[in-house]
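lol ok so funny story. i was supposed to be doing the assay writeup but got distracted and ended up predicting the structure for this chain instead. priorities right. anyway since i did it might as well share w the group, maybe its usefull for someone
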Amino acid sequence: MRFIPGRVKPKTKIVVEVVVVKVVVVVVTVVVVEVVVVKVVAVVVVVVKVVVVVVVVVVVAVVVEVVVVVLEVVVVVVKVVVVVVIVVVVEVVVKVVVVVVVVVVEVVVVKLVKAKVVLVVVVAVVVVVVVVVVVVEVVVVVVVVVVVVLVVVVVAVIQVVVVVSYG
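and the output, tada:
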C-alpha cells in the first residue's frame, strides 16, 4: 500500500485507538478507584468512631462501677469500725463505772455500817448503776443510728452524683 495524502495509515489508526482506549481505561480506573477508596475510607472512619465511642462508654461504665463498689466497701468498713469503736467505748465506760461504783459502795458501806443505813444505800447505788447503764445503752444506740444514717446519706449522695455525672 502506498501512502495517499489525507488518509490515515492503518498502523497510525490502530496506535491512536490503543492510546484512546488506554486513556479511557486510566480515567475510568482513577474515577472508580477514587470513588471506591473515598467510600471505603468514609466507612472505616465511621466504624472507627463507633468503636472509639463504644470503648469510651464501656471504660467509663467500668470505672463508675469500680468507684461504686469501692464506695460500698468503704461504707461497710466505716460501719464495722463505728460499731467496733462504740462497743469498745461502751465496754470500757461500763467497766469504769462498775469499778467506781464498787469502790464507792465499799467505802460507803463500811462507813454506813456503823450508821445502820446500809440497805438503803445499797439499793440506791444499785438503782443509780442500773439507770446509768440504761442511759449509756440508749446513748450508744442513738449514736450508732445517727452514724449509720449519716453514712447511708453520704453514700446515697455520692451515688446520685456519680449517676448524674456519668449517666
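The chain has one domain: 10-166. DSSP finds two helices and no strands in the chain.
back to the writeup now i swear
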